[in-house]
Write a structure and sequence with these properties.
This protein has about 280 residues and is an alpha/beta fold. The protein contains eleven helices and eight strands. Strands 1-8-7-6-5-4-3-2 form an eight-stranded parallel beta sheet. The chain starts with a helix and ends with a helix.
Length: about 280
């Protein structure tokens, strides 16, 4: 029988190796076991959770409204259901201070994740949209320290929300990226960067794998690869699409009494067989 710790380290190393500039890791983000199994079945080399998608699945809104009890339980279910590495979106760390962030990391490691996304955005009322750089760097150092203490080469994907939140330009993003890498991050995630020139500038200015978030209107993955991107994820995009189908089908049934929106559904036997295969 494989030692769980050994398997975690094996998955962590495999996940690291998938981050190659110019040949990006493509991550269709999942939010529950079923979506994770479908992503794996489609051929994904890893499964990434979407923090907001998990929150919605648990009946919560986005914005750090989950905690290190409920969300890691979803991660554990996903990690136990797929054979590929799993990386977890932990939002801002579900904690007020670095010590709390370290406890969150220990929880997601115990759940079977070998990567984390941690963002520098602040949620709730306040004058600033982002944490001060030094404060966020301390939180990233806590992530790194907790993973190192556990003996797992966790891939720490530091999210920089300058562009997404309108809190700075490319220069500010590069400054934050440099500080986060010095604190122990392995990669940099810049949602809101899809303009080719911006992406090229970020890829050239960040000495680590660059992750961008793509969706309708963004350049195809092949074009992002040519710009030097090492990881492409879709955030909550697939969860939004799935929930749109539910609303459309529900409104159709309740409005016209018809079932056309369900025509695109997966075959029952195919889906049931996939879900029953187990890890």
């Amino acid at each position: 029988m494989t030692n769980p710790s050994s398997l975690l380290r094996e998955h962590a190393l495999a996940f690291r190796s998938l981050h190659v500039p110019g040949r990006p890791l493509l991550l269709p983000n999942a939010w529950d076991v079923a979506s994770a199994r479908l992503v794996e079945d489609a051929g994904a080399g890893a499964v990434a959770t979407t923090g907001v998608g998990v929150a919605w699945a648990l009946g919560a809104a986005d914005g750090e409204r989950l905690d290190r009890e409920r969300a890691p339980a979803v991660v554990a279910g996903i990690a136990g259901a797929v054979r590929v590495p799993v990386t977890a979106d932990v939002e801002s760390g579900w904690a007020d201070d670095p010590a709390g962030v370290a406890r969150t990391v220990r929880a997601v490691l115990a759940a079977g994740a070998v990567g984390v996304n941690i963002e520098d955005a602040l949620h709730g009322p306040g004058p600033a949209p982002l944490r001060p750089v030094a404060e966020q760097a301390a939180r990233i150092a806590a992530v790194r320290g907790a993973a190192d203490a556990a003996g797992v080469p966790l891939f720490v994907n530091a999210r920089v929300d300058t562009l997404l939140r309108g809190a700075g330009g490319v220069g500010d993003t590069l400054e934050r990226a440099s500080a986060y890498l010095a604190a122990g991050a392995d990669g940099i995630f810049v949602p809101g960067a899809v303009d080719p020139e911006t992406v090229r500038e970020l890829a050239g200015g960040i000495d680590a794998p660059l992750n961008v978030m793509a969706g309708p209107g963004a350049p195809p993955a092949g074009e992002l690869a040519a710009l030097g991107v090492a990881r492409v994820s879709v955030g909550s995009g697939m969860a939004q699409a799935a929930h749109a189908l539910v609303r459309r089908a529900a409104r159709e049934l309740l409005g016209t009494g018809t079932y056309g929106a369900q025509d695109a559904g997966l075959d029952y036997g195919t889906l049931n067989t996939l879900m029953g295969e187990g890890r």
